[in-house]
Structures are given as C-alpha cells and as structure tokens.
Amino acid sequence: MGKKKMTKIRETAALRKVSKSISRGPGIEMKGIRDKKLKRELIVQERKTNQAVKQAALAQLLLPEETGYLEAEEGERTLKFRQHDIVRHVDVASVSKHFSLTLPHHGPYKACYTTNGRKLLIGGGKGHVATFDWQTGRLGCEFHVKETVRDVTWLHNKDYIAVAQKKYAYIYDGKGVELHRMKNHVNPVFLEYLPYHWLLTSIGQTGYLKYHDVSIGKLLVELKTRLGQPHSMTQNPWNAIINLGHSNGTVTMWSPNMKDPLVKMQCHRGPVTAVAFQNNGRYMATCGMDKQLKVWDARSYKHCMEYYTPTPGSHLAISQTGLLAVSFGGHVQVWKDAFETKQKSPYMTHLVEGARVESLQFPNYEDVLGVGHSNGFTSLLIPGAGEANFDALEANPYESKRQKQETEVKMLLNKVQPELIQLNPDGLHAVTPDTQQTQLGDLNEKELVLRFKTKGRNSAKRRFLRREKHMHDLQRVKIRKAIAESQKDDDDSGETQKSKNILDRFRPKEI
User: Fold this and answer.
1) Which residues, in sequence order, are CB contacts of 250 under 8 Å at separation 6+?
2) Would you call 425 helix, strand, or coil by DSSP?
3) CA torsion angle for 278, 423, 214, 129 (degrees, to 10)?
4) Which residues pair with 285 in a beta bridge?
5) d(CA 346, CA 250)
6) What is the distance between the alpha carbons of residues 381 and 311, in angstroms, rounded to a whole number?
7) Is 359 exposed, middle or buried (0-12, 13-18, 19+ CB in 10 A)?
8) Residue 493: its pLDDT value, please?
9) 1 pLDDT tier (thresholds 50, 70, 90)
10) Sign of CA dihedral 301, 302, 303, 304
C-alpha cells in the first residue's frame, strides 16, 4: 500500500493569522542533529504538526458565528427591554421561537429539553404530558396519566421519556405508550438523567436516592440521605454528581459508589430551594428561603458572592455561555457575568402575569429560555444564551433518522461505568507521583537488580512436589525424634538393671 499524501491547504492572510494564534511555538532546530534517521523522522513529524495547525485554523474560520448580546445605548439599561420590543426587531426565524402555551387547567408545568435542544417535553401537575418540536410546532405525542405528575425528563433520545407520577416512576415511548413501571421508585419527587452513564436517578418523599441503569433495566443502588424530602435536585454536568438541597440549609453531593455524601455544605440559613451548576463544573449557584442567591466555587467550595432576591427564589438555570436565570414568584431575572464579578443589576427581566414559575431551562445552542408556570409554558428570547456553533458529534440538532440510530449505538458503546463517578474526573487518567516513586524507588541511588525466573519453576506440578517434600521432611523429623527418645529410655533402663544384684536383698536397709 502506498503512503497517504497530505492535502495541501492554500495559505491566506486570515489563515496565517489564525494559525499563529493556534501554533504552539517555533519548530525543532535541525542543524545540530547528526543522526540522519532521527532527523528524517523529526522532519516528518514537524510537517504533520504544521498540517494539523492549518486544519484547525481552517475549521475555526469555517465557524464564523459569534455570540451576540443586547447592547443598550447611553443612558439605557438592557433590563428595561421587554419581549415584545425584542420580537419587533429580530428576524422571522427568531420570532417563531417566542411563544406561549396557555394551559391553565392542567398546571403547574415542568419542562425539559433534549440534549440537542430541538425537542421539548412538558408535564402538568394534574397529569397532562406532551412532547413536540418547539421550533416547527410538530406534535410528537400527547396523553393524560390521570394522576399527579411531579417531574419529567428525557432519556437517551427523543423516543423515551420518564415521568415521576404520584406513586411510581414510569417510562413511555415517543408515542405515549407505557413501557415500564418502576416499582422501586416509590413516591418520586425529582428525576435526573445522566446521559453518559445511562442512569436515571430519582429521590422520593422518604429521602431515598436511587440509581437505575436504563440500558439493562436494573436498580444499581439505593442510598438513604437521612435528611428527609429534599427541596431541589440537580446534576453537575462535568462529573455527574447528584446535588440535593435540604430543608436545613445544606447541599449534599452524592455518588453511587458511597453510602455517605461526598461533600456536605452549609449554604443557607433556611431550606435550599434550588441548585444549578455551570457546564464546566467551576461554579455553583444556590438560592434559599433566606432571600439570598449565592455563588460558590465548586472546586474549593468557597463562597464567592451573593445577590438579593425580593422574595425567596424557587428555580435556577445556567446557560452554555454562563447566563444565570433565577425565578421568584412570577418574576424571572437573567444575570450576565454573575460568576466573574459582582453585578449591580440583572441583564434581563420578565414577568409571567398571574402565574407562579415552576421550572427554568436553557435549551442548548439556542438563545431561548423555557419557563414552565402554573398557567402553561412560555418561551423567552434571551440573546447570547446559547453556543453559536454546535458540535455535530456531541449533539446534532439536524440529525437524520440514520444518524440518530448511529448515535444511540455509539453512546451505548461509550457508556461510562457508574464506578467512575467521582468529584474530580480528571484524576482517572492520572498517576500519583508518590505511589510511583514508592513502587519503583529512586533509580539514581539504588541499583535495579533484574531477576530472571526459571521456566516452569512455579508450575502446578512443581508446587505439588514441593508441598509433598515438605510434608515428608516433617514426618522424617518426627520419626527421628521418636527414635531418639525411645533409645534414651532404653539406655536409662539398662543402666538401672546393671546396678542391681541378686545378693543386694541381703544387705541392710538404709535408714
């Protein structure tokens, strides 16, 4: 087979500029290398590196979309902009993303988007469940379970959903047909799905946190929190740790590998009503009944800053670009750059008239905020909320039926085992220097002695013969000891017999 030729990329001024920002520095100096073979290998490696830099720069040039935010003129503030003002000045495609569903008889509603941000799942507290493509308005399924619905979530794709109902948790397909009733999940209050581990987690009114593997249909573990029913539950997308907010003001972090919480933080002076994490896992936001919205460093567990809410906050959501949304009553506030510096005023505000907000979520790759409330569902336009360029290998909003099937198979093959869930996932591929030094030692001070093992030295036959020989040796030692003791007894008895005589009886007895 011939060697694969590299594709030549035509250089332009823009390409050279981007390549310079991506490059890792000057190449290897070849003048001082005398070995011709080594020099030839380094030249080939340098060509491949330059080719990779050019391809990366070209890919960056092919992603021209940038995140845009609202910009106010001098003397104005963006929080004064209302949704009807934004809708009046955006394009037709963005106008279709702003809508409101009025469903006052089945609320309050919980909402959940798929990972690619294309499908929407809503569940009403009185039993109404529906799925649809919120961009085109195409209905997927709609049914009524005729009992209380506390939470809803998508599973690994748009064909399966999980619903936390009054007594048990249920799984339905894309047409609304009941597939499974999970009797182990009793009185569920919150649901979370871990996509990379294929785990459905739930917690009920009794405070038991349960992990269910949906790929094999098996309940993995059931953890007792000993803190009663929580007020909130969310996952950290970076390390798949489940976080619970409790009535005593603490936030606990759980892994299926330990019976006790990994971390227990005292965050508020009252019940913790909501918890949210950034996608990169750096910051955590919490709100409680003490009317405080606090930002924490999720790596060092230190308090960074706090904001005041007029009434206790009920729900939190963080977008891909770091926008923080908080709801209290019927009000929704969106904060920009709230994790880096202390902000004086929110980025945007919205009021859902005559309703109470029950859920918040930012769909991926869209400048939209989904708000579920007691009167239905509302989709708000939030400029700058979503990533401008999506990764088709991670989550493709425009995937076909064949691509969806291939993605499902790849996700199952790349499934991460629950045993690998930990606070710092970067530590899975790292080696502790102390352990390595303890095992190998310092080679500069201590010589390494190589011991060559004889072939067949430790075979089953050899081990059996060595054991038999050892047993025979023990028996031989026992026999020798017994013979020596018997000879000693015989000698003592012989000496006693020699000292006696037949005339000794006539001798006078000693007094």
Assistant:
1) 227, 264, 265, 266, 267, 272
2) helix
3) -30
4) 276, 295
5) 26
6) 24
7) buried
8) 61
9) very low
10) negative
Amino acid at 10: R
Amino acid 417: pLDDT: 93
State both tokens at 235.
Answer: 């996952």
| Closest CA relative to residue 115, chosen from 229, 235, 268 | 235
- What's the rounded Cα separation, in Å, for the pair 171 and 164? 9
Residues sharing a CB contact under 8 Å with residue 364, sequence separation 6 or more, in sequence order:
113, 115, 116, 117, 320, 386, 387, 390, 395
The C-alpha atoms of residue 390 and residue 501 are separated, in whole angstroms, by: 119
First to last CA, the chain: 118
What is this structure's pTM? 0.75
Element (H, E) at 218: strand 218-224
Are 264 and 252 in contact by the 8 Å Cβ rule? The answer is yes
3-state secondary structure of 184: coil
Q: What is the DSSP letter of 199?
A: E
**CA nearest to 385, candidates 338, 325, 306:** 325
- Tens of pLDDT, residue by residue over 248-295, are 999 999 999 999 999 999 999 999 999 999 999 999 999 999 999 999
